What we know:
Layout: E1 6-13, E2 17-18, H1 30-43, E3 55-58, H2 70-77, E4 86-89, H3 95-108, E5 114-122, H4 159-169, H5 174-193, E6 204-209, E7 215-220, H6 232-237, E8 257-267, H7 268-274, E9 280-289, H8 299-310, E10 319-322, H9 327-337, H10 350-353, H11 360-375, E11 379-386, E12 390-398
Parallel strand pairs: 3-4, 3-5, 10-11
Antiparallel strand pairs: 1-8, 1-9, 2-8, 5-8, 6-7, 9-12, 11-12
Helix pairs in contact: 1-2, 3-11, 4-9
Amino acid sequence: MSSDDVYIIEAVRTPVGVGRESGTLHAVHPVNLLSQVLDAVTSRVDVNKSLVEDIICGVVTPVKEQGSNIPRLSLLKAGYPVSVPAVQINRMCGSGQQAVHMACQGILSGDQEVAIGCGVEVMSTCKMGADSDPDLFQKGEDGKPKLKFGDFPYKLIHQGLSAELIAEHYKISREEMDEFAILSHKRAYEATKNGYFKSQIIPIKSKKLNKDKQEEEVWLTHDEGIRYPVDKQKLGSLKAVFKKDGGVTAGNASQISDGAGAVLVMSGKKADELGLKKRARIVTRVVVGVDPVMMLDGIIPATRKALEKSKLTIDDIDVFETNEAFASVVLSWKKTLNVPIEKINPNGGAIAHGHPLGASGAILMTKLVHELERTNKRYGLQTMCIGHGQAIATIIENCSYKSKL
């Protein structure tokens, strides 16, 4: 480790709420949700907010309540001085992770010493796809995409259809996908029960209607979408959503969710100057492009590229946080790279706790940092599939790791 490296100093997240009007976080404005993690990520380590030189925020549906450069509004609400700038970005599902990458890259370039990568998505308010052309997936009489921007060299299909193609190509059965979904809920339930998330989650105050239809204040302190024990019979009876006789169902895919997360990064030199604990070193950051029809198996080459750049192997990685957009995506990646199941999402994933699109990258990074520390493990790898055929991966090293040899 070197003072020239970039380090994670703090990583926090909200609980992940169910992304419906009945969900606890629905009543929380996205600005207020993001402002709370932006406040906590500096105040928890007693870092003066004026030291932050840029905030990059992932937002996948940057419209209405999530438009107008939401991180700038949120940082002002959180008490940052007007001198702190911010920008929102959209690399679809990888946006929050990309925000952390860009924060690191600003430091590595020498432009900054302190930055924040974060993400927010309140899907119960800003519906998925609200920023898209509604004709994007329509087909003409010839079966080709009927696009306002003319001819296009690839089919444009829904991610759910891509998940079905992946299941077929990699020979992943419906039973395997359902079993993985059950495991995700079980692990998330046990992690919550054992208090593994307490150090990373900021309780959020909201409002809900009680049984008398009266509005009352409530606190959300845990991930709201976790269901355990899972009714196997009910899970197995769910119909395929995207393909007749397919295997992808609402039960083995990620949930529509609300949430936010933030990761504070610094140069090693600045962290030493401020006397701050370095939580994790950013080892490698990669993004890749893949076929836009298969689309979601990009996490395979992204993982390989990250390992190659780091001169590490699958065996060197102790914990994997692989976004559970669909069970077939994670299982095809596992099968191809021969990743041990015990290392994959040890505290559950998006099938159980949900996938607030722009926030998930920062939320998974937060989970990864805390899990490496909790278990005294050294290396963690995070990867996420991305629509239209992209993927992103990051490798981090636990700075407090102590070898047992």
